Each structure stands twice: as C-alpha cells, then as structure tokens.
Amino acid sequence: MTQAVIKNEKLEEMTDQVVEALENMKAQDILVIDVRGRCDFTDRFIIASGRSDRQLKALALAVSEVAHRYDLPAKIEGLEAMEWLIVDLMDVVVHLFIPETRESFQLERLWSAPRVSAD
User: How many angstroms separate the CA atoms of 73 and 102, rounded?
Assistant: First the structure.
C-alpha cells in the first residue's frame, strides 16, 4: 500500500468519526467539503451549526476527542466570541457556527464553488 492510499484511508476514517461525533451531539447541517488541490493547509473542511454557544463548545470538545484518538493536538480557536469555532486537526479543519454567523460567512458557498482554471 502506498503512503497516499494510507493517508486517504485515514482521512476518510477520521472524517467519518468527526461527522459521527457531531451527529451524536446534535449538530445541524453538517457538510464535508474536499478542498484538496484548492487549499494548501488542509484536505477537508467540515462545517456544522449549533444552536447556542454552549452547544458549539460541546461540539468542539467532541471533535477534540476524535483528534486525541489519532494522537493529534486539537487547537480550538474562537472561544472568546463563541459564534464561530475552528478545530484544526491538520488534514481536517472543522468550522462550527451559530446559524446566523454561518449564513453571514457562507464558507460552503465559497469552497464548494468549482475551481476556475487559469488558462
């Protein structure tokens, strides 16, 4: 098995576990976006919404638990404002939003757009 295949399998496994953790914590509108080739700091974005700042924090902690299973540090950013939390798992970056903030930033629209080639 090549390193790329192993990395892809681990990426899929970790993505599935993060999504499952978010679903278990009742996250809303979970979306996985493959950003390989369009983003040089990660391979996947996972975007989800929570109904309150308390739920956002619980979602971030659940994602952190998945990171620890992979011996990854899980840095949570945004705890001060509690409207948009980012949990960086290196190959996967999780964005957790209050619905109004998610609507305002529209990350899924930005990153789901097809790439434009520079011909």
Answer: 25
The residue among 35, 19, 23, 22 whose CA lies nearest residue 107 is: 35
- CATH code of the domain occupying 13-109: 3.30.460.10
pLDDT in tens, 61-86: 999 999 999 898 888 999 988 899 99
pTM above 0.85, yes or no: yes
Phi, psi of 105 (to 5 degrees): -85, -30
Q: How far apart are CA 28 and CA 71, in angstroms?
A: 27
Pair 76, 84: CB distance under 8 Å: no
Sequence letter at residue 42 = T
